[in-house]
Specification:
The protein has 66 residues and is mostly helical. 27% of the residues lie in helices and 6% in strands. It contains 2 helices and 2 strands, in the order αβαβ. β1, α2 and β2 form a beta-alpha-beta unit.
Length: 66
């Protein structure tokens, strides 16, 4: 099984549970000077953790490619 297949099955599981799927972040971020590089799948959620934005859905999932 290829990593792409595993990622697809992982995201499909959460999508079936009514999670919104967000794209993974690029390895080097261009719009965020506070991060040098992405080391986890939590980067797309940073603004929510900091209280700077409200998620459109309370259930969100991603898979960080690395």
């Amino acid at each position: 099984m290829k990593s792409q297949d595993i990622r697809s099955k992982f995201l499909s599981f959460f999508e079936e549970k009514k999670h919104s799927i967000v794209a993974s972040a690029p390895m080097v971020l261009k719009d965020d000077p506070t991060l040098m590089f992405v080391n986890a799948g939590m980067v797309p959620f940073k603004e929510y953790f900091l209280g700077n934005a409200e998620p459109k859905n309370s259930r969100i999932a991603d898979s960080q490619k690395c």
